[in-house]
Amino acid sequence: QVQLVESGGGLVQAGGSLRLSCAASGRTFSSYAMGWFRQAPGKEREFVAAITRSGANTSYSDSVKGRFTISRDNAKNTVYLQMNSLKPEDTAVYYCNAGYTPLLNYGKPGIYWGQGTQVTVSS
């Protein structure tokens, strides 16, 4: 199995930026498609972004497209989520996700999850 550990969350003012990291261990990182999901207070878990094994293709939810960028560094076994122009509505726990489908999405998430990192955006 692969273990996923998120970092980089915190408190930021609206309009600011954060960069989340997800470090993988236990299996070959390049074997997995990767993604990010989030869960706001009182809401269900929501798809945010995904990236293929090689990093050649990406996908984003409509709510973050144009503001967030997912990337990966297979040499460092790490996937990133660059978040710009943050809004209070982005406040949530962000979860790293790994799986075997070519490109992860809400209907086909990966089977491995990290523990999450809190992102809070103040107005």
Describe the 3D structure.
It is a single chain. The chain has 123 residues and is mainly beta. It has no helices and 11 strands. Strands 2, 4, 5, 6, 9, 10 and 11 form a 7-stranded mixed sheet that branches. A 4-stranded antiparallel sheet has the order 1-3-8-7, with no helix packed on it. Strand 4 and strand 5 (46-51) form a beta hairpin. The relative contact order is 0.32.
Q: Could you tell me the mean pLDDT? A: 94
Largest sheet, strands/sense/barrel: 7 strands, mixed
- Classify the beta-strand content into a percent band: over 45%
Low-confidence stretches: none
The shape, in one word, is: globular
Radius of gyration: 13 Å
**What is the rounded distance between the termini?**
40 Å
Helix/strand order: EEEEEEEEEEE
- Helix content class: under 10%
Structural class: mainly beta
How many distinct beta strands? Answer: 11
Q: Count up the helices.
A: 0
Task: Summarize this structure as a short list of keywords or feature phrases.
11 strands; 123 residues; globular
Report a brief summary of the structure.
The protein has strands at residues 3-7, 10-13, 18-25, 33-39, 46-51, 58-60, 68-73, 78-83, 92-99, 112-113, 117-122.
Q: Which SSEs are present, and which pair or pack?
A:
Blueprint: E1 3-7, E2 10-13, E3 18-25, E4 33-39, E5 46-51, E6 58-60, E7 68-73, E8 78-83, E9 92-99, E10 112-113, E11 117-122
Parallel strand pairs: 2-11
Antiparallel strand pairs: 1-3, 3-8, 4-5, 4-9, 5-6, 7-8, 9-10, 9-11
